[in-house]
């Protein structure tokens, strides 16, 4: 697996046959659309299906895209389809689009957690080997352009298709290609759900700071800037996390007292179990929606 820095990722060059259709206009779709428009993709080459009228109007006003009430309208003439709906409704959405999928043979890009490429291909009326599908798992920092996305491509996806999918998702952060689709559940468990783990730690640190007598605003500022600064050190330094931790842990000092408490409490085993459970839930979602 290799991360792909944003500046080196190709940008789609939409034409009449290269229009991009988003099925679903929620927060993640808005983030991706905004990233594409910022990179110079013309809004009129992007089509969005969104059932809520107010949301359609907002998408058209904010990005200059063509917004439609139904997916069948949005995908007309689009060479790439982005499935940006909840996993629970994806089967219904795909089955409604199956006739057009067979006729247009688009590149299908799915950001639905837990739904396999084989399921999507079947619901679209094709098969996994012949249907060009890129399955993606972005995370919520994508809304700030600071996300990371794991991508898996079926054998039917050619080089230009992979480049287009990478360009689309890299508009919201870095990308990592996965060779084995079975590992996408692990991607979901680590990075897709991962921001919530950091939020939980920040929440717990704020609570502890208040119990130590710090005012609410002081506790929040201390925790948020500490998390931000640590994240920057992790991303901007070439050192592994263990080495960065060692450098701020003086023998017999305050940090060591805290780290030893975490270790005695089984933090590593708990994180391992939590990520394992999240990955298993991804597999369950796939089975439940089959």
Description:
This protein has 290 residues and is of the alpha/beta class. Helices cover 52% and strands 14% of the residues. The chain has helices spanning 27-38, 53-63, 71-74, 87-104, 117-123, 159-170, 184-192, 194-211, 216-236, 241-247, 254-264, 267-288; strands spanning 3-4, 19-23, 46-49, 66-68, 78-83, 107-110, 133-137, 147-153, 173-177. Strand 6 (107-110), helix 5 and strand 7 form a beta-alpha-beta unit. Helix 8 crosses helix 9. The chain is elongated. The two termini are 28 Å apart.
Sheet with the most strands, sense and barrel status: 9 strands, mixed
* Element order: H for helix, E for strand: EEHEHEHEHEHEEHEHHHHHH
| Structural class by secondary-structure content | alpha/beta
Number of strands: 9
User: How far do the termini sit from each other?
Assistant: 28 Å
Q: So what's the oligomer here?
A: single chain
The gyration radius over C-alpha positions equals 21 Å
- Our count of helices gives 12
**Widest beta sheet: strand line-up:** 1-9-8-7-6-5-2-3-4
**Mean pLDDT over the full residue set:** 91
Amount of beta strand:
5-15%
Unreliable spans are: 1-16
What is the share of helical residues?
A: 40-55%
Shape: elongated
Task: Please write out the topology.
Elements: E1 3-4, E2 19-23, H1 27-38, E3 46-49, H2 53-63, E4 66-68, H3 71-74, E5 78-83, H4 87-104, E6 107-110, H5 117-123, E7 133-137, E8 147-153, H6 159-170, E9 173-177, H7 184-192, H8 194-211, H9 216-236, H10 241-247, H11 254-264, H12 267-288
Parallel strand pairs: 2-3, 2-5, 3-4, 5-6, 6-7, 8-9
Antiparallel strand pairs: 1-9, 7-8
Helix pairs in contact: 7-12, 8-9
């Amino acid at each position: 697996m290799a991360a792909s820095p944003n500046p080196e990722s190709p940008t789609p060059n939409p034409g009449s046959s290269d229009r991009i259709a988003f099925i679903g206009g929620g927060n993640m779709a808005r983030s991706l659309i905004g990233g594409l428009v910022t990179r110079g993709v013309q809004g009129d080459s992007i089509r969005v299906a969104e059932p809520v009228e107010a949301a359609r109007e907002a998408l058209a006003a904010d990005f200059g895209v063509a917004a439609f009430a139904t997916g069948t309208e949005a995908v007309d003439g689009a060479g790439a389809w982005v499935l940006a709906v909840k996993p629970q409704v994806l089967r219904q959405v795909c089955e409604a689009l199956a006739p057009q999928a067979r006729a247009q043979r688009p590149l299908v890009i799915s950001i639905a957690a837990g739904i396999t490429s084989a399921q999507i291909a079947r619901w679209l009326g094709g098969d996994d080997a012949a249907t060009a599908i890129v399955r993606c798992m972005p995370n919520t920092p994508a809304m700030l352009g600071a996300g990371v996305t794991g991508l898996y491509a079926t054998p039917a996806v050619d080089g230009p298709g992979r480049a287009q999918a990478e360009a689309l998702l890299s508009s919201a952060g870095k990308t990592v290609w996965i060779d084995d689709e079975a590992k996408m559940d692990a991607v979901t468990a680590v990075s897709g759900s991962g921001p919530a783990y950091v939020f939980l730690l920040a929440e717990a640190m704020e609570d502890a700071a208040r119990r130590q007598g710090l005012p609410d605003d002081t506790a929040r500022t201390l925790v948020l800037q500490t998390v931000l600064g640590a994240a920057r050190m992790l991303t901007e330094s070439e050192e592994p996390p263990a080495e960065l931790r060692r450098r701020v842990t003086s023998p017999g000092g305050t940090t060591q007292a805290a780290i030893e408490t975490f270790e005695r409490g089984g933090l590593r085993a708990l994180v391992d179990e939590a990520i394992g459970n999240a990955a298993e839930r991804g597999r369950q979602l796939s089975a439940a929606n089959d």
